[in-house]
């Protein structure tokens, strides 16, 4: 049986808070964790000492996640390294183009390879376990359900409705 | 004197004096006798043959009429060309008469010739005149039949001899009404008329016809000459001129632009319906009654006074009857033909609709920006939630593992994200501020820029960044919301400082420039910082887009800047090269700046 401690995961995110959060979640689950603040740094690590899996933010300054993926696909020797996309931008103008580009690319398949922010720690950890063939801990029904529900609702909020609410507020 | 002697003498005198050249030739063509006129015309004849004399030949002529008369005894008349004694050729009408002896022989032929060179020339001239005169000429008999026609007539109407004139000209079966030829046949006088007909190709021909009797004395002449001058081209030009006049008139009448024209004294001569609407005057009240000066901008009067030609004002005012001022685009021209001053014309394009549309568009853009912002807000909240989740998780993990460093960092995350919530709320409320709150005063742009520079000097020094001001002097005060423009510049300068900090290079420089170009006030913020790649440039104004990391930005700064710029009728542009730097430029055309806010 593979243990998480045998696996090294690279967390790529431009926001230090997110980086620390994801790093801590993975470390608590027993993984070795390395971090990179953008695509360039991630590529350097891939070239010198490739990880076993990578957690990738799609939209980052200087070198977006998409650009990193482009380089990643050019290297056959990296093909076996699973990529988990973690992004908040999949549904807005900012990330949609990148996201669609990537999703239309065959190399990344399966529902567990894409996660939308905000991610739940257990879902996040289980995605890596699944990708790396490690036994999965049951996801418990927790008291956090209400919070998850709010997050879900926020994810699906209709911008026009929000606009109407704003107008109402302005009129008082 | 004996009676016979007298006769002989008279015959001799007759022979010598008759106004004709007479010669008698024998069958061998010897000239055996000739009169004085003959000798004067053709020279010495004695001992000569007739063809020696007339043609300077030694053999008889090929179709000698004398020979024919010797042969058949018939009289003949012919027209011949002969050489006179000076060797030049002339035309003669020659009569050949046989002298028949009692025994029926013809020993001699009398030849009587008369010089008709002059007649011949007149005849030829007449023919040329008849054929070539630039008129259709026909001669009609009393039955209106064409008995002669000239070349020009034939060319246009075809050969028509024997046909009735109205058949040819008008393709009618009866004479036309008011036929001038019929009048001439009746009274012998000259008559004229304007007519139109159809030529042999079926095209309409316009002509001016004159009819005249061919004989001078008769009251009811047998023949009438009809001369028609073709005026088709003139008529066509006239018609085209009329059409073009009508065309221009309807253009002016139906033009959306208001058009006013005046004579050289400035008196209005044209006032189209659009002008009636714009100025609220009827054309009748204005034309020949009012001066153009009262309608056009003073700039145009200057142009006229200075003797210039044109005046174009992209934005001007027209004052109508009710002293209301209407925004217009104005174009005025001084009309000249060569050096002659014909007057002036003024064109007004009513800009009220356009102004309203511009205003609506600005409003729509602002609302669209608000909509985008609201949509982006959900995204922002997501990030904050994730930060809070993360902070709690990291703190919890630190406490679980007795890792005080991790606990501390988790706590920091929580603090940061709570601060971020306040930032969002502040920026968002700022952004959502309605136009109602805009407070326009007369602002000195230089002073404003200077204040922003002062604000950042300390911050920049600390970060090791040079901040410079390049401000043009003498920029006149402009209508602006001081606070709002201040916010814009603060946003841009603070962005520029961040861009320098994010750059890997040292020696960051931020320059705030202020200048005026073509009545447009321009603020420019340049940095030599990290710059932006294409994708970031594309997104920079779109949503809550921040590249600065969690604590620093909400992504609203540029949106707020753009909204304020647009509210001032200006625009924001961006030039940026990755890792070389960026230039943000705010351009405010003076004429688009908002009016002063009225004091409550």
Describe the secondary-structure layout.
The complex is a heterodimer of chains A (172) and B (600).
Chain A: E1 8-12, H1 16-28, E2 32-36, H2 39-48, E3 53-56, H3 65-74, E4 83-87, H4 93-103, E5 114-116, H5 121-132, H6 145-155, H7 159-171
Parallel strand pairs in A: 1-2, 1-3, 3-4, 4-5
Helix pairs in contact in A: 2-3
Chain B: H1 3-17, E1 21-26, E2 31-34, H2 36-42, H3 50-55, H4 65-72, E3 76-83, E4 89-99, E5 108-115, H5 117-132, E6 136-141, E7 146-149, H6 151-157, H7 165-169, H8 180-187, E8 191-198, E9 204-213, E10 223-230, H9 232-254, E11 258-262, E12 268-271, H10 273-279, H11 283-286, H12 298-306, E13 310-319, E14 325-337, E15 340-350, H13 352-400, H14 404-432, E16 440-443, H15 445-462, E17 466-471, E18 478-481, H16 482-502, E19 509-517, E20 520-527, H17 534-539, H18 557-567, E21 571-577, E22 581-589
Parallel strand pairs in B: 17-19
Antiparallel strand pairs in B: 1-2, 1-5, 3-4, 4-5, 6-7, 6-10, 8-9, 9-10, 11-12, 11-15, 13-14, 14-15, 16-18, 19-20, 20-22, 21-22
- The amount of helix of chain A comes to 40-55%
Total number of strands of chain A? 5
Ranges of chain B with pLDDT <50 over ≥5 residues?
none
H and E order of chain A: EHEHEHEHEHHH
Distance from first to last alpha carbon of chain A: 62 Å
| Radius of gyration of chain B (Å) | 55 Å
- For the largest sheet of chain B, list the strands in their spatial order: 2-1-5-4-3
Tell me, rounded to a whole number, the average pLDDT of chain B: 85
Number of helices of chain B: 18
Can you tell me about this structure?
The complex is a heterodimer of chains A (172) and B (600). Chain A is α/β, with parallel strands linked by helices. Chain A is built from 7 helices and 5 strands; from the N terminus they run E-H-E-H-E-H-E-H-E-H-H-H. Chain A has helices at residues 16-28, 39-48, 65-74, 93-103, 121-132, 145-155, 159-171; strands at residues 8-12, 32-36, 53-56, 83-87, 114-116. Chain A has a 5-stranded parallel sheet. Chain A is globular and about 60 Å long. The N and C termini of chain A lie far apart (62 Å). Chain B is of the alpha+beta class and 600 residues long. Chain B is built from 18 helices and 22 strands. In chain B, the strands form 5 sheets. Chain B has a 5-stranded antiparallel sheet, sandwiched between helices. Chain B has a 5-stranded antiparallel sheet with strand order 7-6-10-9-8. In chain B, a hairpin with a 2-residue loop joins strand 14 and strand 15 (340-350). The longest helix of chain B is centred in the middle third of the chain and has 49 residues, at 352-400. The relative contact order of chain B is 0.05. The model of chain B has no long low-confidence stretch (mean pLDDT 85). The A-B interface holds A 14-18, 20-22, 24-25, 27-28, 61-62, 64, 88-89, 92-94, 117-119, 121, 151, 154-155, 157, 159-160, 162-163, 166, 170 and B 370-372, 374-379, 381-383, 385-387, 389-391, 393-394, 397, 400, 406, 409-410, 413, 416-417, 432, 434, 502, 530, 533, 535-536, 539, 542-543, 545, 547, 549-550, 578.
